C-alpha cells in the first residue's frame, strides 16, 4: 500500500509519499536535521541520537507568544540555514513547524510527517500556517509548504475513535466542497472510526487529490479555496467556546451541521438537496458514535459562542461571511447582514447542533 503524487505551488512542487514505515528511513544526520515533534512521540525519538524539540499538541502551544520559545530552542540546538526540520505530529505541530520554518533565518527547509488522520487527509497539503494571538484562533499565518510530506499509515493505529472521526469530518468536507464526483466516491467508501487500513488509504488519497484541485487553482485563498472554510466559522466558535474540549475536526463536523441549518433557516432551499441530506446524515451518524459528545457540549459557554462567531476574521464590516449550501446542494460564499434577526438565526442553528441544550444569555 503506497502512493506518490506532486502538488504545484508558487514556491515550487512538493511531493506527497504515502506508505508504511516511511518515517524511520528519512531520519539522517543530527548535524543537518532537527525534529519538532508532538510530545506524545518524544520518547520514540529522544535517545536515537537526533535533536528533538517536543511540544504538547494543545491549542495554547500554537500561540504567537510561544513561537519565540521554539525559535530559541532551535537556536540552542544549533539550527543554521542548512538545517532541515522534520515535523512529526498533527495540525498543531504542523502549524508551529510551518510558521517557525518560514521565519527562522528567513526560511529553513522542512518535511512533514502527519500523525493524525486530520493531518493526513487535509492539513498536510496547502502550506498554511495558522497561529493564535490572544483569544483569537488562527489570526495570523502565512504560506510555506514543506519540501516533502510523508504519510506513514502506522500512525493511524494509535488514534482514538474520536481522533479518527475528527479527520473524517475534514475529509468529507473537502469531497463535498468539490462539484465533481468526489463526494459520490466518498459516500461509496463510507469511512468510519472502525474502517480498515485499505479504506483509510483510499480516503486519504481521495481527500488529498480533491484538495489539490482547490489549492492549485487558488493557493492563496481568494476564491475557490474559501469553500474549504465550510463549517469553520461555526466550528471555530464551538471549539473555542468549549475551551478546546471539543477537538477541531469534530467542531468542524458540528459547524457543517450548523451551516446546513443556517442555510435552511435562511431559505436557501425549500427541499433539502439530496447531497446535503446525505452529508447531514453521514456527519450526524459519525458524531452520534462519540460517547462524550453530550458532556463536551455542556462545556460550551453560550456567551462566548456568539462572541467568537462575531469575531471571526472572515466577516466584513457590515455582513457575516459564511459558506453555505445552495439550492443545488453546492457550496457558495454567502453574506448575511449583521442584524438582530440574523444573529437570532445563527444562534438557533447553533442550538440545533448543540442538542438544544443552549440557553440564550
Ligand atoms: N494548517 C492547516 O492547514 C490546518 C488545517 C486544519 C487544522 N489545522 C489545525 O490543526 C489543529 C488540530 O490538529 P489535529 O486534529 O491534527 O490534532 P492535534 O495536533 O491537535 O493533536 C490532537 C491530539 O492527538 C494526539 N496525537 C497525534 N498523533 C497521534 C497518534 N498517531 N496517536 C495518538 N495520539 C496522537 C496529540 O498528542 C493530541 O493529543 C487545530 O489547531 C487546527 O486549527 C491546521
Summarize this, please?
With 361 residues, the protein is α/β, with parallel strands linked by helices. It is 43% helix and 18% strand.
Bound small-molecule species:
nicotinamide-adenine-dinucleotide
Q: How many beta-strand segments?
A: 11
CATH class of the largest domain: Mainly Alpha
The run of helices and strands is: EEEHEHEHEHEEEHHHHHHHHEEH
Instruction: Specify the CATH architecture of the largest domain.
Output: Up-down Bundle
Helical residue percent?
A: 40-55%
Q: Helical element count?
A: 13
Radius of gyration: 20 Å
Tell me about this structure:
This protein is an alpha/beta fold and 361 residues long. 43% of the residues lie in helices and 18% in strands. The protein has 13 helices and 11 strands. It has helices at 42-45, 64-76, 91-103, 117-123, 161-177, 182-189, 197-217, 232-241, 248-265, 274-288, 293-298, 302-310, 340-353; strands at residues 3-9, 12-19, 33-38, 51-55, 84-89, 109-114, 131-133, 136-140, 148-152, 319-325, 331-337. A 7-stranded mixed β-sheet has the order 1-2-9-6-5-3-4. Strands 7-8 form a two-stranded antiparallel ribbon. Helix 3 links the parallel strand 5 and strand 6. The structure holds nicotinamide-adenine-dinucleotide. Residues 38, 40, 57, 59, 62, 89-95, 115-116, 118-119, 122-123, 126, 128-130, 138, 155, 158-159, 163, 166, 247-249 line the site of nicotinamide-adenine-dinucleotide (NAD).
Amino acid at each position: 500500500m503506497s502512493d506518490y503524487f506532486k502538488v504545484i505551488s508558487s514556491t515550487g512542487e512538493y511531493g506527497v509519499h504515502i506508505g508504511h514505515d516511511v518515517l524511520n528511513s528519512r531520519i539522517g544526520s543530527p548535524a543537518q536535521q532537527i525534529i519538532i515533534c508532538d510530545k506524545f512521540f518524544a520518547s520514540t525519538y529522544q535517545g536515537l541520537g537526533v535533536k528533538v524539540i517536543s511540544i504538547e499538541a494543545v491549542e495554547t502551544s500554537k500561540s504567537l507568544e510561544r513561537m519565540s520559545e521554539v525559535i530559541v530552542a532551535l537556536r540552542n540546538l544549533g539550527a543554521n540555514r542548512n538545517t532541515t526540520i522534520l515535523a512529526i505530529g498533527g495540525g498543531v505541530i504542523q502549524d508551529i513547524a510551518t510558521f517557525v520554518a518560514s521565519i527562522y533565518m528567513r526560511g529553513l527547509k522542512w518535511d512533514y510527517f502527519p500523525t493524525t488522520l486530520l493531518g493526513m487527509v487535509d492539513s498536510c497539503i496547502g502550506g498554511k500556517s495558522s497561529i493564535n494571538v490572544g483569544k483569537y484562533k488562527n489570526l495570523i499565518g502565512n504560506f510555506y509548504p514543506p519540501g516533502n510530506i510523508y504519510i506513514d499509515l502506522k500512525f493511524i493505529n494509535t488514534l482514538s475513535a474520536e481522533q479518527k472521526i475528527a479527520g473524517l469530518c475534514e475529509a468529507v468536507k473537502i469531497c463535498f466542497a468539490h462539484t465533481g464526483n468526489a463526494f459520490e466516491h466518498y459516500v461509496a467508501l463510507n469511512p468510519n472510526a472502525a474502517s480498515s487500513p485499505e479504506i483509510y488509504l483510499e480516503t486519504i488519497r481521495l481527500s488529498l487529490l480533491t484538495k489539490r484541485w482547490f489549492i492549485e487553482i487558488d493557493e492563496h485563498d481568494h476564491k475557490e479555496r474559501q469553500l474549504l472554510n465550510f463549517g469553520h466559522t461555526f466550528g471555530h466558535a464551538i471549539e473555542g467556546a468549549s475551551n478546546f474540549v471539543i477537538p477541531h475536526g469534530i467542531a468542524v463536523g458540528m459547524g457543517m451541521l450548523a451551516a446546513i441549518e443556517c442555510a435552511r433557516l435562511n431559505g436557501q432551499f425549500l427541499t433539502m438537496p439530496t447531497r446535503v441530506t446525505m452529508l447531514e446524515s453521514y456527519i450526524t451518524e459519525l458524531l452520534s458514535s462519540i460517547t462524550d459528545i453530550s458532556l463536551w457540549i455542556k462545556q460550551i459557554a453560550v456567551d462566548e459562542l456568539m462572541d467568537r462567531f462575531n469575531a471571526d476574521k472572515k466577516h466584513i464590516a457590515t455582513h457575516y461571511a459564511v459558506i453555505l449550501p445552495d439550492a443545488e446542494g453546492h457550496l457558495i460564499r454567502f453574506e448575511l447582514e449583521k442584524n438582530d434577526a440574523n444573529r437570532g438565526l445563527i444562534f438557533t442553528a447553533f442550538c440545533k447542533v448543540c442538542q438544544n441544550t443552549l440557553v440564550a444569555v
